[in-house]
Amino acid sequence: MAKTAVRGTFLDFVDDPYKHVGNEEAAARFQADGLLVVEDGVIVDFGAYDDIASTHSGVEITEIRDRIILPGFIDGHIHLPQTRVLGAYGEQLLPWLQKWVFPEEHKYSEREYAEEGTKHFFDNLLASGTTTAQTFTTGNLTCNEVFFEEASRRNMRMIAGLTGIDRHVPDYFANTPEQFYDDSRTLIEKWHGKGRNLYAITPRFGFGASNELLAACQKLKEEFPDLWINTHISENPAEVHGVLALHDDCHDYLGVYEKFGLVGPKFTGGHGVWLSNSEFRRFSEAGASVAFCPSSNLYLGSGLFRLGRALDPEHRVLVSYGTDMGGGNRFSLLNSLEDGYKVGMLNNTILDGSILPSEQDLAESERNKLSPLRAFYSITKGGAEALYIDDLVGSFDIGKEADFVALDWTAGPPATAWHQSLSYSDGPLTLETVSDLLFGVMMVGDERAVDQTWIAGELAYQKA
Amino acid sequence: MAKTAVRGTFLDFVDDPYKHVGNEEAAARFQADGLLVVEDGVIVDFGAYDDIASTHSGVEITEIRDRIILPGFIDGHIHLPQTRVLGAYGEQLLPWLQKWVFPEEHKYSEREYAEEGTKHFFDNLLASGTTTAQTFTTGNLTCNEVFFEEASRRNMRMIAGLTGIDRHVPDYFANTPEQFYDDSRTLIEKWHGKGRNLYAITPRFGFGASNELLAACQKLKEEFPDLWINTHISENPAEVHGVLALHDDCHDYLGVYEKFGLVGPKFTGGHGVWLSNSEFRRFSEAGASVAFCPSSNLYLGSGLFRLGRALDPEHRVLVSYGTDMGGGNRFSLLNSLEDGYKVGMLNNTILDGSILPSEQDLAESERNKLSPLRAFYSITKGGAEALYIDDLVGSFDIGKEADFVALDWTAGPPATAWHQSLSYSDGPLTLETVSDLLFGVMMVGDERAVDQTWIAGELAYQKA
C-alpha cells in the first residue's frame, strides 16, 4: 500500500513510568501536533509535524482533530467464548464455571455459533480500542479455526491457542491429553506466524489439568520453543486449595507450572491474586508475566491483587492488564483501569497502616496508585512488554505496526464533558493536560471515548 | 392537570425481597401489560391494562414499548457541588477533601457558578434515572438557595440542607455554629415542605464538627422535629480515629451523633464501612439508616461495607444506596449496584471460610449477594423506606407521586444487546425474564439504559 499519514495529538511511552517516580513525564512521549507515517501497515516515520512533514510531501494525510491518539490497547487475558455470558449472576469462580461458562463455551463447537460469537467478540474489541488480545478459546478445533480465520480477516495482532482442560469439567467439554496435543499441533502448524497470528500453548488452569495434559504442554513448548504460554494462576482461594490437592507434590500453584518447565518468557499467568512473595520472586526471575484482571477479581469476588507488591523493583514482575471478559463484566480496558485504580486504593487502606500499624508500607502503597500515565503505559507499551510483543506493537517507534486509537475525552456519561472542561477547554494541549484528561477518560468516561480504532494503518472502527 | 396514563411493562415492589429468601418474586409486583393512571402528578390507579383500562376511557394513554418501567431511582447520598470534580486522582478521604473538594465547593458561593453547576447536577440525575436524591450542598446560603430553586423548578422530590463544617477545614470554607444555625433556620422556614422540597439538618460529618455545631443541629431538630438529618459516618479508618480524637468523650463514631440526640428515624449516616456490631444494633434500634456508597468506597479505597451484616434480620439496618458523586466517580445508581454487587462478592471470599475457616458465615454471605430484585428494590422502595419517604415515592401504589423510569435493556456498551438476547428476544415478558434483564442492565449495561425519566407524571428526560 502507498504511504499514508495521520496528523494529530499523540501520546505514547518510551520507558516505564514506574521507573520514574515523581517524574513520570520522562517516560512519556508527547506530540501536540504530530505526524505518523505508515506504509504497508508499519510505521515508517513519527515525530512533530513541523519537523518531518516536508520529508513526506505528497503523502495523503488524515487529520484527526480534538482527539488524543495512543497506541492500540493490549488485553492480556480475555475469553472469546464468554462474549455472550459476561456478567452472570452470583457465583464465585468454580461454581460459576460449571453453571454458566462451560455450557456456553461448548456452543462454539458449532461453526455457525462460533462465527456469530467471534464476530461480536472482535467488533466489541475494536469498539473498546483494543487492537491486540491474548485470548482463551475452547478445547475444540472448530472454535479455534474460526478464531484464527477472523483474526486473519481483520489483520489483527492476536495471541491464542486451543484451551485445554481435563479435570473438574463436564465430560462433554473435556479434552484428553492426546487430543489436546494433536489439535494444538494442527493449529500451530497452520496458524502460528501466519499473518499477524501468534500461538499460545493454553492449559486453561492448573486446577483443570492432569499431569498428562501439562506434560503435553511441556512437549509442545520443547518442540516449538518460541510459542507463548497462556494460563491462569491463584485467582481464588478455593481454587488454590484445589490445585494443591490435585498436584500434591507441589508446594504452591506456580510450582505446578514450573514442574513442567512452562514458566519463563512469554508465559502469562492470569490473575495472581493470591501469589506468595516467593512466587512473585520466581515470576520475576523467570521473566514471566501476570495478567492483572481487576474487573473480574471484583466481579467474582476473588480478591485484591497485590499490584504494588508485584511492581516492587527488587523483583519486578511483568504485568499486563486483562478485562477477563466474561469473568470480567466489561470489554473495555478503560473499565479495567478504573477497577485497577480502585483495587490499588483498597490495598492502600491496609498499607497506610491506619488499621494495623505493622502493615504500613509506604513504598508499596505508592506503587498501588494508578496514575493516568502508569495506567495508559500499562495497556500499551507495558502490556506489549509483558507479552513479549514490544518489538511489534505498543508504541509509535519506527518499524512497529500501526495500531492506534483516537480518544474523545469529552465522551461518556453525561457528567464527563463538564468534568473534563476543568482540565482543558481550548488552545494547545500539553502532556500535563492530556494526563489529566486521560484520568477523566478512565474514571469518569468509558468506552464511548473510543472514537476511532486503526489496525495496521487502516481505519477499522469509527464510533457512530 | 387532566388525567393521563402510561401503558407498558411495569416492575415495582410490595415488600422487601430480603424477607423472602429463596422466593424473592413474592416481594415484587409485575405487570407485563400494565396501566399507570396519573392526575396532578399523583398515581390514581395502577394495574393490569385489561383490568382497569375501561375505567379510564377517554384518558390520553402514552404507550411505552420495549421498555421496563420502574419507580424512579432514589439516591441516598450525593454531593451537588462535587459535580465537576468527580473522579479526582489519588487521595484517600481526608487529603482528597482538602485538595480537590473544598476549593470546588467554595465556588458555589457565587450564584452564577452555582446555577451552572446545579443545572448540570439535575440534568445528570435525570439522565441517570434518579428522581429523588438526599443531597449535600455547602455551608453557604447562596448555594442552597440555588439548589432549592432548581429543585422547585423541576418539581422533584429532593432532600437537602445547609452542609455545615467547622473543624479540619480551610477558613474560607468554615461555618460558625451561629451562622450554621441561623442560615439553616432561614432555609427551613423558606423551603421545607414547599412544593416537593424536604429539609435535612446537615452537619457534614463528626470529624468536621465541633460540639457547638452539633449542638446547633440538636437545637434545630428539637425545634423542627419532622426534619431529616443527613451526615457521614465511619467511612475511612483515619477519619474514625480522627473523630474520636476530636470527640474524646465518645467510645465510637455513632456515639458522637447520639450524644446530641440526632440518631433516630430520618437520620442517615453515609458509608458506615467501619461500623462495629454494636453500632449496627444501635442504628437498627433507633430506626436510623445507612447510605451504602460502594462506588465511592472503592474509588477512595475506604473499604468494604459489611452489607450482609447490616441486613441481618436480628438487627436489620435500613439501607439506601448512594452514588456519593463525587467521592463516587459516577452519577448513575446502576453503577452503584454494579459496585455493590462487587463489594458483596469480595465480602464473601472471607465469609465462605476459604481463607480463615473461623470466619465462615453462610447466612451473612447469602445476604451479600445482590440479586437484581434485591438491587432494584434497594434503589426504589428500599431507598424510600430508608429515607422515610415511602409514603410519597418508591412504588406504584395509589396516592404516591408518579416518578418513574423506562429502561431499554439492550442499551449500553456494545456487548449488551447480544448478552441480553440470551434472556429474551420476543414475546411476552415475565418477571423471571425481567429479573435477568435487569441484572444485565446493572452489570453489563450502564446509564444508557435510561431511556425516559418522568417526574410527577410528566416526561422530564428523553435519551437522544
Layout of SSEs?
Two copies of one chain form a homodimer.
Chain A: E1 4-13, E2 28-39, E3 42-48, H1 49-52, E4 60-71, E5 73-79, H2 93-106, H3 111-127, E6 130-136, H4 141-154, E7 158-161, E8 163-164, H5 177-191, E9 197-203, H6 211-223, E10 228-233, H7 237-246, H8 253-259, E11 267-271, H9 277-286, E12 289-292, H10 294-299, H11 307-310, E13 318-321, H12 333-351, H13 362-367, H14 372-378, H15 381-386, E14 404-407, H16 416-420, H17 431-443, E15 450-455, E16 458-462
Helix pairs in contact in A: 3-4, 4-5, 5-6
Provide a quick synopsis of the model:
Chains A, B: Its EC number is 3.5.4.3. The structure is a homodimer of 464-residue chains. With 464 residues, chain A is α/β, with parallel strands linked by helices.
Short descriptors:
homodimer; 464 residues; alpha/beta; Urease, subunit C, domain 1; TIM Barrel; 2 domains; seven-stranded mixed sheet; globular
Q: Most extensive interface, residues per chain?
A: A-B, 58 and 57 residues
**Strands of chain A, count:** 16
Which class of secondary structure composition applies to the elements of chain A? alpha/beta
Superfamily at the CATH H level of the largest domain in chain A? Metal-dependent hydrolases
Specify the CATH class of the largest domain in chain A. Answer: Alpha Beta
Largest sheet of chain A: 9 strands, parallel
